Every structure is written in C-alpha cells, then in structure tokens.
Amino acid sequence: MAGNGCNGNGKAAGVVVPEIKYTKLFINGEFVDAVSGKTFETRDPRTGDVLAHVAEADKADVDLAVKAAREAFEHGKWPRMSGYERGRIMNRFADLVDQHTDELAALDGADAGKLLHLGKVLDVPAATQMLRYYAGAADKVHGDTLRVSGKYQGYTLKEPVGVAGVIIPWNFPTMMFFLKVSPALAAGCTVVVKPAEQTPLSALFYAHLAKMAGVPDGVINVVPGFGHTAGAAITSHMDVDSVAFTGSTEVGRLIMESAARSNLKAVSLELGGKSPLIIFDDADVDMAVNLSRLAVFFNKGEVCVAGSRVYVQEGIYDEFVKKAVEAAQSWKVGDPFDVTSNMGPQVDKEQFEKVLKYIEHGKNEGATLLTGGKPAAEKGYYIEPTIFVDVTEDMKIAQEEIFGPVMSLMKFKTVEEAIEKANCTRYGLAAGIVTKSLDVANRVSRSVRAGTVWVNCYFAFDPDAPFGGYKMSGFGRDQGLAAMDKYLQVKSVITALPDSPWY
Q1: Where are the extended beta strands (E) located within 357-458?
Q2: What start-end ranges are recorded for coiled-coil regions in this protein (predicted)?
C-alpha cells in the first residue's frame, strides 16, 4: 500500500490508499475496456476524493459477458466437471483469497469506508469460509428416487439453471460477492456479476484470483456499472436464466418487472430491513446495551439487518436509555484504517446526505434527539452515532430503512405489545430478542415475522444458516444448502418398466 499522493489523487497526508490493480471489465477470462470506452469514478468516502476510474459497462458489454457465460455453460468444462473437481478449484480460489486478505480488506476499506481490521478478521475470512462451504457441497447435489404408481420407475435430477445474473450491494462488497457466487459455482452455473458502482474494486480482484485458481474462462464475468444500465441489461436479458439480487426493496420491484417482461427468469431478492431488537426486563442491561450498540452502529449502520428499532421493556427502560447514550458517545468515529476506530464514513455523499435527512425528519416529527445527529468530521462522510427517544410507530425513522447509524428507542409493557410492535413494519428480514426466559424467547421467536431471529446475540451468521426475508424484505434464501436451490432446476425422469418383479 502507498500513502500520500498514490495514483496522483492528492490525498490528504496520513490517508492510506491501497494500490489499485484492476479497473477494467472482466469478460471471458480477460480484463477489457468498455465497448463505449467510458469510465466512472469510484470515490474514497474518507475524503470524497476520486479513488479510481473504472470501466463502465453498458448493454453492449453485458451482451458480451452473457455470451461468454452462455458459451462456457453450453460447451465449456465447468458444468461437465464432477462436483469434486469443481470443489477442488473453489478451494484453490479460497486459498488465493486468504493469501491476499490484507490487500482485499484495504480495497473495501478505501472503497466502502469499512474498518480495515474487521475486513481482515471478519469480512474476508467469512467470505472464504462461504466459498469452502459450497466447495464441499458441489459433489453432494442429489436427486430423489420416486415410487411412482404403475409400471414405471421415476427419479429426479438436479441440474444447473444456466447463466446466473448476480447484482450485489455496496455495504459488504466481499461477503456479498461470495454469498451469491459460491453456490452458483457449486451448482455448475456460470455467472455475470454487477458489483455496486460505489464499490467495484474488490469484485474485479476476485475475478483475477478465480482465473488464477483455474476457474475456466467465461464462468465468472464482472461488469461494473450502474443499475439503470448494466443492471437493467442483466435483468432484462433473454439469455440470462436467473437473477440473484441484494439491495433496496424499490430496486427489487424493478428487477421483478424486468424479469417478467423478458424471459420470466427466476428471481431471488434479499431486500430492505427495519429489524426490531426486543429487550425484556430480565435482561442484563449492560449486555443488552452493548448488543444494541453493535446491532445499530456496526458498519456505520449500513447493514440490511441492522437492529434500528430498539424496544425496551418499561422496567429497565430508564437505565437502558442512560447507558445506551453513554455507549454511543464512546463509539469512536474515524478513519477506518485506524485500529482504534469503531465506525468509518458512510459509503458516499448521497448516502451521507440521506442519513442526515432522516435525522431531520426524526426531529421534525417530534422525536427527541439524545445524542449525535451531526456530521462527525469536516471532510469525508462521517456521521455521529445517533439515538432518538419518544419515537412513535408512524414516524419515518421507525418505518423506513435509514441504512445509517440511527437508533430509534421505544418502550413497551407486555410480551403481546412487543410482538405487535415488532411486526408493524413492511419488512421482515431479522429480529433480536434479549431475555433470560426460555418461554419468552420461544414465544417471541415464533411470533415475529422475520427470516432470522437472534436470541441473546446479534449478527450471528454462519454459512449453514439460511438467510432471507419475509414480507417486503424479499424471498429466496442465501447461505445453507437452501441457497443452492435457486441455481438448480429439478427434472423428473419417468421410464416405462413393463416387466419388473415388483412395483
């Protein structure tokens, strides 16, 4: 890595900038310029300065990427390898990612404002764990033997769906890449990946490492660009067989429309969230405060499952509020490359301004701002950890996904009230419960309409645990063997059996 002046960006003294090696599109195993020759800027949220100019994919480039992916699927080695061989290559891919952990964490740190030390110990290791999990699943794709009636025998085959379009968000560029790509590779699919325009750099590096690992040309294609051009070209393409998307509910709607208007491609959506964290009177208050701080302010609140609605039972409410404010004020906002920082900047100027606007909505609608609520630095997109009380369910800050470090603190009396409040949102991605009562934990877990429920913990993810949403948080599952389903077709084969000793 280099310091001041790297890439001629004129960075402020002391701001560490990683070396950026890959800025072109990756199509059919090669880095290439966009057909149009256009590029776009990706900026460093620590300063707002340009980090790199990246080739901008448009429909013509997506057409080339899909053509390469189709050729690799129809005539290439990848779908025809044994699952064992695919798994070996995927494990080599994981080994290469591990070897470049520091460099990759730095790319996401500079491109997305993510904490560098957490990238090294959390994001990149979690991504390679995901890749190895599906490498192990690649030779375990099984059909069923069917007891069909009559003089027949039947069985099912699970076959790769074909060319998968993958559109990933900017908040976890590394983890989201492997969350989608890993099961697709294990299933024998080929992929066209559009990373978020805010954070394209690590995805291009992963394409390079995949080729080094032996993934055949055309199997992984990466086309950085914008949603309304490159993303729309993928979702409307007649030769893309499925689309997996993580992002906003609004864009999820557009993807479903596009899929329906084109070839009715299969769609899986992991969308917005407004997750409740419900804290009962019997909870350890200090533990609950620390959990709530993590649930809301981790990754500067840019987390789809952020526990941004914190419900506290009345018996401990006052104590909790006091300690929550102290905890928020001790959360250090600073350069994500500084190991003492707890929180970096929002990903870009647009998100920075959006969060500040929601904070103004909260104040204007009558919520009480206890701490934070302002930019935390003169330069860059830093925002103070923010806590509101006196929040009602009809306020924007209680209903809409802010995707920033803003906590809405609310009080409840009974278990029934907590369940009702937890469910009074259009979203259903995740929920947290803090209690020492097994009965309360079981009752609330089964009553909250969310795809993941954490009891006395938060952000406890594992490759084996399916993840996805209820309601307007989407459908389909990432992680676990269930994630393979969206990359596989099920075919029934029934054969006449006129002379069997038994039926």
Answers
A1: 368-371, 386-389, 406-412, 427-428, 430-434, 452-455
A2: none
**1: confidence class by pLDDT, cuts 50, 70, 90:** very low
pLDDT-derived band at 10, boundaries 50, 70, 90: very low
Residue ranges with strand state E in 161-271? 163-167, 190-194, 220-222, 242-246, 266-270
Task: Give the up-direction half-sphere exposure of residue 172: CA atoms within 13 A in the CB hemisphere.
Answer: 23
CA atoms of 479 and 27, how far apart (whole Å):
27
Q: Catalytic residue at 159?
A: no
The Cα 183–Cα 54 span in angstroms is 27
Contact 68, 27 (CB under 8 A): yes
- Please give the residue that has the higher pLDDT: either 500 or 4: 500
Q: CB within 8 A of 136, min separation 6: which ones?
A: 87
Closest-CA residue to 54 (of 229, 196, 225, 230): 225
Report d(CA 275, CA 308) in Å as an integer: 6
Condensed to tens digits (0 to 9), the pLDDT of residues 52-78 reads: 999 999 999 999 999 999 999 999 999
Q: What is the model's pTM?
A: 0.94
Please tell me what DSSP assigns to residue 406. E
pLDDT, tens digit, 9 for 90 and up, residues 143-189? 999 999 989 999 999 999 999 999 999 999 999 999 999 999 999 99
185 in Cβ contact with 214 (< 8 Å):
no
Crossing angle (nearest 10°) for helices 101-112 and 173-187 = 120
pLDDT tens, 72-121? 999 999 999 999 999 999 999 999 999 999 999 999 999 999 999 999 99
How would you classify the pairing of strands 427-428 and 430-434? unpaired
Contact 117, 127 (CB under 8 A): no
- Numbers of helices and strands, H then E, in the chain: 15, 22
Q: Within its chain, how far is the Cα of 228 from the centroid?
A: 20
Amino acid identity for residue 482 in this structure:
A
The angle that helices 101-112 and 124-137 make with each other, rounded to 10 degrees, is: 120
Q: Which of 270, 302, 384, 401 is catalytic?
A: 270
H helix or E strand, kind and range, residue 311? strand 309-313
